[in-house]
């Protein structure tokens, strides 16, 4: 004889799961910059259902809402709408209370127009918690994709790289791993993947052979790869030939023109920016190979311009030359067909009232690297999504894409700094206001 409790459990298992009421967002009367490169156009209506765009004027079909659906209609009265910003280089989980601090930073970023970020070295435990909460709708913030950090033993002896795995020895966690020629890379990459990381970052103290093995194994296991543009002694050309997906920090490209690359990764602050021009023949050949192989450039111009004001304890005397060189190199790489993204490396502002520095990176692409405003917008949206492997779902305002949007009071095609004149951000179909 079955117990009543067992019968009840059986019936509950057979019962259909409770369905959540559909949520619709309708935006009307705005100028649309869709991120594809098409000119801005006057748009009467955009509708998203459960965070996915289902109608843009005569594209798609006007949905018939379910009886219990929630429908929010917002008239924009001629405002400008573009894809939400994507920052391809942040570090939001490097704090003692990593999860709490990261959520605070990301909430501010959402209010400031950023809808997706790639964390390039942080505590994966906190980042996994944030990504879970975001996916479940418990936390309204940018989509977070994150990385495992691989480097030689030297990089874990001091500094931020030694502090990303509280409770574990530096360089010994799956998401922050010291690599040598004897490391079982199949196991190391598999463990990194198990943390939820979608990207392996190569930091420094890695020779060309080991770098190639890391990149090839990560690719084999379905992960993306990002590397400092020189990881000492492996140089930019070595990394491109190995199949890296993104090179980060434009100043480090300079080492492609050097006859010899030092093994000490600390030499990254002593680049030969005065003696090797950005249009050196080896550099021009590098840009061409990057374009041919689809390697993205995460230029991070802002951090070199701003570092002089970061702290009096930090020697930033080298950053002026590094910034000027990097701006010219970024211009040349882009002209050669390299897709550039907006990564900041120094994402969060010190003042709570300030916007994320992603806006400054956008402005520098125009003001220092010679991009048009449209090209800069594409770098911060379409190309950022592609670099993160999300081009099928994010980065442009099109049918079937996630409704990650930035609504502005003024035209960013006339002045790129108008991206700071934010009326609201839309994250997965949910409006977030600046206040």
Describe the structure.
By secondary structure, the chain is of the alpha/beta class. The protein has twelve helices and 18 strands. Strands 6, 7, 8, 9, 10, 11, 12, 13, 14 and 15 form a ten-stranded mixed beta sheet that branches. Strand 3 and strand 4 form a beta hairpin. The longest helix has 17 residues. About 3% of the residues have low confidence.
Helix percentage range: 25-40%
What oligomeric state is this? single chain
Q: Tally the helices.
A: 12
What is the β-strand count? 18
C-alpha geometry: globular
How would you summarize the topology of this molecule?
Blueprint: H1 4-14, E1 23-32, E2 41-49, E3 52-56, E4 59-60, E5 70-83, E6 85-90, H2 98-111, E7 114-119, H3 124-135, E8 143-151, E9 172-173, E10 176-178, H4 185-194, E11 199-202, H5 208-220, E12 224-228, H6 236-242, E13 246-248, H7 281-293, E14 296-298, H8 301-306, H9 319-335, E15 340-341, H10 358-367, H11 373-380, H12 382-387, E16 405-408, E17 422-427, E18 430-432
Parallel strand pairs: 1-5, 6-7, 7-8, 8-10, 8-11, 11-12, 12-13, 13-14, 14-15
Antiparallel strand pairs: 1-2, 2-3, 3-4, 5-16, 9-10, 16-17, 17-18
Structure, briefly:
The protein has 435 residues and is of the alpha/beta class.
Question: Tags for this entry?
Answer:
435 residues; 18 strands; 2 domains; TIM Barrel; 8-stranded mixed beta sheet; 10-stranded mixed beta sheet; single chain; globular; alpha/beta; Urease, subunit C, domain 1
């Amino acid at each position: 004889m079955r117990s009543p409790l067992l019968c009840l459990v059986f019936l509950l298992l057979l019962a259909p799961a409770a369905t959540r009421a559909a949520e619709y967002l309708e935006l009307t009367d705005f100028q649309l910059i869709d991120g594809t490169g098409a000119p801005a156009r006057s748009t009467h209506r955009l509708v998203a259902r459960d965070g996915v765009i289902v109608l843009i004027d005569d594209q798609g079909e006007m949905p018939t809402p379910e009886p219990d659906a929630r429908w929010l209609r917002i008239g924009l009265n001629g405002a400008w709408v573009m894809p939400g910003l994507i920052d391809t280089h942040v570090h939001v989980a490097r704090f003692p209370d990593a999860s709490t601090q990261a959520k605070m930073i990301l909430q501010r970023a959402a209010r400031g127009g950023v809808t997706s970020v790639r964390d390039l070295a942080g505590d994966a435990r906190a980042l996994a918690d944030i990504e879970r909460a975001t996916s479940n709708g418990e936390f309204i913030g940018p989509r977070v994709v994150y990385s495992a950090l691989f480097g030689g033993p030297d990089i874990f002896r001091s500094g931020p790289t030694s502090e990303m795995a509280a409770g574990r020895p530096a360089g010994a966690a799956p998401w922050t791993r010291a690599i040598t020629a004897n490391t079982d890379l199949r196991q190391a990459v598999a463990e990194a993947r198990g943390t939820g990381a979608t990207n392996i970052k190569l930091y420094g103290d890695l020779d060309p052979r080991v770098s190639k093995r890391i990149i090839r194994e990560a690719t084999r296991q379905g992960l993306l790869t990002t590397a400092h543009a020189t990881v000492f002694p492996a140089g930019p050309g070595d990394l491109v030939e190995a199949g890296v997906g993104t090179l980060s920090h434009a100043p480090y490209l300079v080492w492609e023109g050097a006859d010899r690359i030092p093994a000490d990764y600390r030499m990254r602050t002593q680049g030969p920016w005065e003696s090797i021009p950005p249009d050196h023949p080896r550099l021009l050949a590098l840009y061409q190979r990057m374009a041919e192989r689809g390697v993205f450039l995460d230029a991070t111009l802002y951090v070199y311009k701003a570092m002089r004001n970061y702290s009096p304890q930090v020697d930033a005397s080298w950053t002026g030359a590094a910034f000027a060189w990097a701006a010219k190199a970024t211009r040349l790489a882009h002209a050669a067909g390299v897709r550039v993204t907006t990564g900041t490396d120094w994402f969060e502002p010190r003042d709570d009232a300030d916007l994320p520095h992603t806006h400054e990176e956008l402005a520098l692409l125009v003001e220092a690297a010679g991009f048009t405003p449209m090209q800069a917008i594409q770098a911060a949206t379409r190309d950022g999504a592609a670099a993160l492997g999300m081009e099928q779902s994010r980065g442009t305002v099109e049918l079937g894409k996630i409704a990650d949007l930035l609504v502005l009071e003024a035209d960013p095609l006339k002045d790129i700094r108008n991206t700071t004149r934010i009326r609201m951000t839309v994250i997965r179909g949910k409006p977030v206001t600046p206040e």
